Amino acid sequence: MTEPAAGRGLLRSVRRLADTALDTAQVRLALLGTELEQEKQRIFDALLRAAIGLLVLGLALLLAIGFLLLMLQEAYRLPALGVLTLLFGVLAYRLLKGATRSLSSSDEGPFALSLAELRRDRERIGARRERDPGSVS
What we know:
With 137 residues, this protein is mostly helical. The chain has helices spanning 2-71, 77-103, 112-131. The protein has one domain (2-131). Helix 1 packs antiparallel against helix 2 and helix 1 (2-71) runs antiparallel to helix 3 (112-131). The protein is rod-shaped and about 105 Å long.
């Protein structure tokens, strides 16, 4: 008589274990989706800033060079063109470097929160195994 009750208890435990595993997987996938959305938004923002920066920089460069060259005497026009080219080149480099830095991942890399949660899950499972060495995983 005790065997059917033990069988039902085992089945109930397996169902609870499966339910817990599915809940954990669902939470982890939701977290991964959120992080993926954040990464996509961050990349889009950086690319948009870089594109607008390049457009504005090019326009400012053309206008400034044209204005200054028209204001200077003939003898100073060529050196002024060289200085302005150097100045705007440095500015463009800094803008592009900032865009590159903003696109690079943080030290932990993309999906750091999801990976940290999965690591904690593995540690918890390992701690349970050490506590119950006779249990079947």
